[in-house]
UniProtKB/TrEMBL annotation:
Residues 1-23 form the signal peptide. Keywords: Hydrolase, Protease, Serine protease, Signal. It comes from the Bacteria. This is S53 family peptidase. Residues 28-48 are annotated as: Disordered. It comes from Catenulispora pinistramenti. The lineage of its organism: Bacteria, Bacillati, Actinomycetota, Actinomycetes, Catenulisporales. Gene3D superfamilies: Peptidase S8/S53 domain.
Length: 536
């Protein structure tokens, strides 16, 4: 019997929280570029010619996507798999030469811990504190996290293990500059529950910014650094530095970078999501408002660890099967029910892990000799630079909503009522807190904080600490040799009785390519079961 997804158990299908992976308005997205390079402190300029823009502030956005994408009548599919490849889709047309797996209902904490080697290590983040910085604050966060933990037989957040630092008031609640607090609440729940999943004994401090504005987010980060609230900071937000409305203020970028540098030298690791729109290509649906293909900020800053995305295949009993670089194309079940539209292999590109070569940040010394020269000197626009530039991401973890994380949050449901529900959520907003939890486990194992991570990470390049992730390294894949991996989201019948389903072709990240060695989709790769042991 194919299991219905968990949302159906707790409260019927709910409304899709606004996906915020790239839409830019005149008052919205903002970004922060880059500043000094760790070793040589070169000026944050590129030798390639770019179109001048007026410097201005743009708003930061979250980087999470629901499994049901923009199908707003659903919080989860009607049918799904508990693990990758458990069931195939039998009531929809074949694609890529045969039947395709039903999408994962949403991985549980136990599955993710085993797949990434946490269970085997026995490290749980004890004695380590992770800070999570987002805009606004959910009034039900602690109760949601413990409700979720009870539902999945997980350790509850004990008294004193979770706390919040919130401002006296909030800004930009109604002027359209920021995503609604409800969307940030979903982000907060994803971040808190993902960190707790990977590091069940770590302390978590949630630091709320007064809004998505640079000034407010920087103030929250400043609080973490000044009060040394944590040794790891998970940040699942960012923006494009070059929009059609102007460029991010260089002074703001420099201020961010100086803060990251000071924190890193003081034993604090900053982790940032690379975004969910691949190269932020303006021709892609999620790239609206982007001036040109580019990397996200603050992820491109040389003093932070940029976390990209993968599609993760977990088999029975939590077994790691494989990972592919995250990038999905979507086709919909035609009204006749007998074909896919567009046809399989030609679907619309929807989303994928952010990455690429920065036009703003020169190559940090830790990337020299690891990042291929052809990659570091070729911008996402195709222009070439005289000197190498910073390339994102540094590392990657599960982010594909097709292989997402079951998340619990109190929110508005389709019937208009407010209630707790669970659904699968992905995005580099998932990968970042997953990695934050893993770093917390590593800090416990090492017995000390790491501070700025990247030099040590790049020293592990090519070692067994990382899976070398390619576009199709999902183990038994589609499972047909020579065809791209794909999954089906079966939504069942809509209100008019019509069957609704989506086919997602995986492993295509647009202008970015996952391949052997360092690449601009997964960086050094994803942490293997040897990763935690490498820090002992």
């Amino acid at each position: 019997m194919v299991r219905r997804s968990t949302w159906a158990v707790f409260l019927a299908a709910g409304a899709l929280i606004a996906v915020s992976q790239g839409a830019v308005s005149e008052t919205a997205p903002r970004h922060t570029g880059a500043a000094a390079e760790p070793a040589r402190a070169p000026a944050p300029t590129t030798t390639a010619t770019t179109t001048p823009h007026i410097a201005r502030h743009l708003a930061m956005h979250t980087n999470h996507i629901r499994l049901t994408d923009d199908d707003t009548d659903y919080i989860g599919p009607e049918k799904c798999s508990d693990y990758y490849g458990e069931y195939t889709a039998r009531t929809v047309p074949n694609a890529f030469g045969g039947r395709n797996p039903l999408a994962v209902c949403g991985y549980t904490p136990a599955q993710l811990r085993y797949a990434y080697g946490v269970t085997q290590s026995h490290d749980r983040g004890k004695g380590v504190t992770v800070a999570i910085v987002d805009a606004y604050a959910s009034p039900t966060m602690l109760s949601d996290a413990n409700h979720y933990a009870m539902n999945h037989d997980e350790r509850l957040l004990s008294p004193g293990q979770y706390r919040e630092v919130v401002p006296p008031s909030y800004n930009h609640l109604t002027d359209g500059e920021c995503e609604a607090p409800a969307s940030w609440a979903v982000e907060e729940a994803l971040d808190v529950e993902a960190v707790h999943a990977m590091a069940p004994e770590a302390n978590i401090v949630y630091v709320a910014a007064a809004s998505c504005d640079d000034t407010d987010l920087m103030a929250a980060l400043q609080t973490v650094v000044d009060d040394h609230l944590a040794t790891i900071v998970s940040d699942s937000w960012g923006g494009i530095p070059h929009s059609v409305y102007g460029d991010e203020d260089p002074a703001t970028m420099a201020a961010y970078s100086a803060l990251f540098q000071r924190g890193g030298q003081d034993g604090i690791s900053f982790l940032f999501a690379t975004g969910d729109c691949g190269a932020a290509d303006p021709t892609a649906q999620c790239g609206t408002g982007s001036a040109r293909p580019q990397t996200q900020y603050p992820a491109q800053d040389p003093w932070v660890t940029a976390v990209g995305g993968t599609s993760l295949a977990i088999g029975p009993y939590g077994r790691y099967v494989g990972e592919a670089g995250w990038g999905d194309r979507r086709s919909e079940l035609a009204p006749s029910g007998g074909s896919w539209s567009p046809s399989a292999g030609t679907g619309q590109w929807r989303f994928g892990g952010g990455g690429g070569t920065s036009e703003d940040v020169p190559q940090p010394s830790y990337q020299a000799g690891v990042v291929p020269l052809g990659l570091s000197t070729t911008l996402l626009t195709g222009q070439h630079t005289l000197e190498p530039m910073r390339v994102l991401p540094d590392v990657a973890m599960d982010a594909d909503p097709m292989t997402g994380f079951m998340t619990g949050v109190t929110e508005k449901l389709p019937n208009g009522k407010i209630g707790y529900a669970e659904s699968a959520i992905g995005g580099t907003s998932l990968a970042t807190p997953l990695y934050a939890g893993l770093v917390a486990d590593a800090e416990q194992a090492a017995g000390h904080p790491f501070g700025f991570l990247n030099p040590a990470l790049y020293a592990l390049a090519g070692s067994r600490a990382f899976h070398d992730v390619t576009a199709t390294s999902l183990g038994y894949d589609a499972p047909r040799y020579g065809t791209p991996p794909a999954q089906v989201v079966d939504l069942g019948a809509d209100g008019k009785g019509a069957h609704q389903a989506r086919l997602y072709q995986m492993g295509d990240d647009g202008l970015l390519s996952a391949g052997v060695g360092f690449d601009d989709v997964t960086g050094l790769g994803s942490p293997s079961q040897s990763y935690l042991r490498s820090w002992d």
